[in-house]
Protein backbone atom coordinates (compact mmCIF):
# COMPACT_ATOMS: atom_id res chain seq x y z
CA UNK A 1 0.00 0.00 0.00
CA UNK A 2 1.16 3.51 -0.79
CA UNK A 3 0.28 6.68 1.06
CA UNK A 4 -1.12 9.66 -0.81
CA UNK A 5 -1.87 13.11 0.57
CA UNK A 6 -4.47 15.41 -0.95
CA UNK A 7 -4.03 19.02 0.16
CA UNK A 8 -7.06 21.30 -0.28
CA UNK A 9 -6.84 25.08 0.20
CA UNK A 10 -9.20 27.98 -0.44
CA UNK A 11 -8.43 29.78 -3.69
CA UNK A 12 -6.46 33.01 -3.16
CA UNK A 13 -9.43 35.20 -4.09
CA UNK A 14 -11.77 33.49 -1.61
CA UNK A 15 -12.19 34.96 1.88
CA UNK A 16 -11.00 32.55 4.58
CA UNK A 17 -12.89 33.41 7.79
CA UNK A 18 -11.24 30.61 9.78
CA UNK A 19 -7.78 31.79 8.74
CA UNK A 20 -8.71 35.38 9.63
CA UNK A 21 -9.94 34.27 13.07
CA UNK A 22 -6.63 32.50 13.68
CA UNK A 23 -4.51 35.45 12.53
CA UNK A 24 -6.58 37.72 14.80
CA UNK A 25 -6.08 35.44 17.81
CA UNK A 26 -2.32 35.03 17.47
CA UNK A 27 -1.33 38.49 18.85
CA UNK A 28 -3.71 38.01 21.79
CA UNK A 29 -1.88 34.76 22.54
CA UNK A 30 1.50 36.48 22.45
CA UNK A 31 2.60 35.56 18.93
CA UNK A 32 3.85 38.42 16.75
CA UNK A 33 4.99 38.63 13.17
CA UNK A 34 2.29 36.49 11.52
CA UNK A 35 0.80 38.42 8.60
CA UNK A 36 -1.74 35.96 7.20
CA UNK A 37 -3.17 32.50 7.78
CA UNK A 38 -5.02 30.31 5.29
CA UNK A 39 -6.70 27.21 6.67
CA UNK A 40 -7.13 24.16 4.49
CA UNK A 41 -7.72 20.45 4.68
CA UNK A 42 -5.38 17.46 4.41
CA UNK A 43 -6.54 14.00 3.45
CA UNK A 44 -4.31 10.94 3.74
CA UNK A 45 -5.26 7.96 1.60
CA UNK A 46 -3.77 4.48 1.59
CA UNK A 47 -3.96 3.17 -1.95
CA UNK A 48 -2.63 0.14 -3.71
CA UNK A 49 -0.30 0.50 -6.66
CA UNK A 50 -3.10 -0.03 -9.18
CA UNK A 51 -4.67 3.37 -8.38
CA UNK A 52 -3.56 5.80 -11.08
CA UNK A 53 -2.78 9.48 -10.76
CA UNK A 54 -5.81 10.18 -12.95
CA UNK A 55 -8.05 8.29 -10.51
CA UNK A 56 -6.57 10.21 -7.58
CA UNK A 57 -7.28 13.46 -9.40
CA UNK A 58 -10.89 12.38 -9.96
CA UNK A 59 -11.23 11.58 -6.25
CA UNK A 60 -9.76 14.93 -5.22
CA UNK A 61 -11.81 16.96 -7.68
CA UNK A 62 -15.05 15.01 -7.37
CA UNK A 63 -15.19 14.30 -3.65
CA UNK A 64 -12.57 16.01 -1.50
CA UNK A 65 -12.52 19.57 -2.87
CA UNK A 66 -15.15 22.11 -3.81
CA UNK A 67 -13.48 23.22 -7.03
CA UNK A 68 -15.50 26.43 -7.20
CA UNK A 69 -13.71 27.84 -4.14
CA UNK A 70 -10.82 25.44 -3.45
CA UNK A 71 -7.59 24.33 -5.07
CA UNK A 72 -6.12 20.90 -4.49
CA UNK A 73 -2.99 18.91 -5.13
CA UNK A 74 -2.14 15.24 -4.85
CA UNK A 75 1.20 14.19 -3.40
CA UNK A 76 2.39 10.60 -3.40
CA UNK A 77 4.58 10.02 -0.36
CA UNK A 78 7.79 8.01 -0.69
H/E topology pattern: EHEHE
What's the total number of strands?
3
Helix percentage: 25-40%
Task: Please give the domain count.
Answer: 1
Q: What's the tally of helices? A: 2
Classified in CATH, the superfamily is Phosphoribosylformylglycinamidine synthase subunit PurS
Catalytic activity: N(2)-formyl-N(1)-(5-phospho-beta-D-ribosyl)glycinamide + L-glutamine + ATP + H2O = 2-formamido-N(1)-(5-O-phospho-beta-D-ribosyl)acetamidine + L-glutamate + ADP + phosphate + H(+)
Organism: Nocardia bhagyanarayanae
Family: Belongs to the PurS family.
Main location: cytoplasm
Lay out the secondary structure.
Blueprint: E1 2-10, H1 17-28, E2 41-47, H2 53-64, E3 70-76
Antiparallel strand pairs: 1-2, 1-3
